[in-house]
Design goal:
300 residues, D-Maltodextrin-Binding Protein, domain 2, Arc Repressor Mutant, subunit A, two-stranded antiparallel ribbon, alpha/beta, seven-stranded mixed sheet
């Protein structure tokens, strides 16, 4: 028995007129009469009776009405709730980030710009954090609209996904105040001193790759004794334990926060590797113009 027939039972009890029921369902009167007859045939009992021009439910009809009303009510509730979810999802724009690119958004003016953009378009902006492989899976499935990550290998633009470099950030040495190099000022000499000390590192292969390229170029051997899964954890660990760390400048919090933690930044040499940040989105996304506006606001 279909949902239409359940709805028909409810409306017959409410209006008691075939014409009114047909108008409510936006179907023809003969169609209502046809379904009434089919229902009685299906159940094998009389459900309706005519009295003084009105359609009334029999005892069996009222029994069926008890269940039909519940089914109709549950369907209407489900339709309403799922409709609300659909409307919310349609206006939701999900940016997928690695822990590193999420730190960039959190520590830069990009979040404020994205908020202004989303408000002007009536969109709900949300951030989802996953590793790069999972981000691409979600992008392929359509559960995220746009992803950001540190470049590991060069991707070719086109095909299923579009790619764009958001910029490249220079690497910086983060020195805690209890470290012997805290007051060091000569950048060239600082580089040569780094391999004498242990580091803590960020568990992000794209950052590690750039640091490795730089150290190999200068034939430095940097020793790491601990790895941390987020920029925030790494910074707090360096400040607490007095260890050096190398990070892209764009991932670091404002200078006031670093000062509060007793951390100083120092530049590497002028030829130091830079950490590129990449954005990707589906080539068939329905609003490419909005994508470009997002790109404009998060680029370095």
């Amino acid at each position: 028995m279909s949902l239409l027939k359940m709805k028909l039972m409810v409306l017959i009890d409410r209006y008691k007129q075939i014409t009114a029921v047909a108008n409510a369902l936006q179907i023809k009167q003969p169609t209502v009469s046809f379904h009434m007859k089919k229902m009685e045939e299906e159940w094998g009992v009389k459900l309706f009776e005519m009295r003084t021009g009105k359609v009334l439910l029999t005892r069996n009809g009222k029994l069926l009405l008890h269940y039909a009303s519940q089914i109709d009510q549950l369907y209407s509730e489900a339709e309403s709730r799922l409709g609300a979810i659909h409307a919310a999802e349609k206006n939701r724009f999900v940016i997928g980030c690695t822990t590193s690119t999420a730190a960039y958004l959190a520590n830069s003016a990009a979040m404020g710009k994205l908020r202004t953009l989303s408000e002007s378009h009536g969109a709900i902006m949300s951030i989802a954090v996953h590793d790069e492989e999972e981000l691409y899976q979600k992008l392929h499935l359509g559960t995220v609209d746009f992803i950001m990550y540190g470049e590991g290998k060069q991707q070719a633009d086109g095909g299923e996904f579009r790619y764009q470099t958001l910029g490249a950030s220079p690497l910086r040495v983060m020195i805690p105040q209890q470290h012997p190099l805290y007051a060091w000022s000569e950048e060239i000499s600082l580089d040569s001193q780094l391999e004498k000390y242990e580091f803590v590192e960020l568990a992000d292969s794209s950052v590690a790759q750039r640091i490795h390229e730089w150290s190999r170029k200068h034939q430095y051997s940097l020793t790491s004794h601990a790895s941390f899964g987020s920029v925030e954890l790494l910074i707090n660990a360096a400040a607490a334990c007095g260890d050096l760390a190398i990070l892209p400048e764009c991932l670091l919090p404002q200078a006031a926060k670093l000062d509060e933690l007793g951390l100083q930044l120092a530049a590497l040499d002028s030829e130091a590797a830079r950490w590129p940040m990449i954005a990707s989105w589906r080539s068939q996304h329905w609003d490419q113009a909005f994508m470009q506006q997002v790109l404009d606001r998060i680029s370095l």
